[in-house]
Fold this sequence. Notes:
Layout: E1 7-11, H1 15-27, E2 31-35, H2 41-48, E3 52-56, H3 64-72, E4 82-86, H4 91-98, E5 102-105, H5 110-121
Parallel strand pairs: 1-2, 1-3, 3-4, 4-5
Helix pairs in contact: 3-4
Amino acid sequence: MSDPAKTIIIFDDDNDILSICSYILEEHGWKVHTFEDCNDIVNRVSMIKPDVILMDNWIPDTGGIKATRTLKEDEDLKDIPVVYFSANSDIESLAKAAGAETHLAKPFDLDDLVSTITSVAHK
């Protein structure tokens, strides 16, 4: 890839998901940062300035909806696309409630992971 690597932050408290997503995205040229909770989210995201954020619904401590809303209320961070992901059957309305750009249902196909993230990163 001749493009500079795009950066993503993954917020999920499931180590297996963090490992799989990191591996797949790194194979596609992404620089991946992972966190198992969303504490101090504004500082973390401000320091990394990712191209995309992958946000789990059930993330400690505040949960994905509150964490996403916190980012969307921050003037410097509100334009970073958030992909909301969850095994919840109501993922679409959760993503809307959070203010996320799109969503990805768990379990997900690895190709869908890459294409969903890539599609919002180019906006």
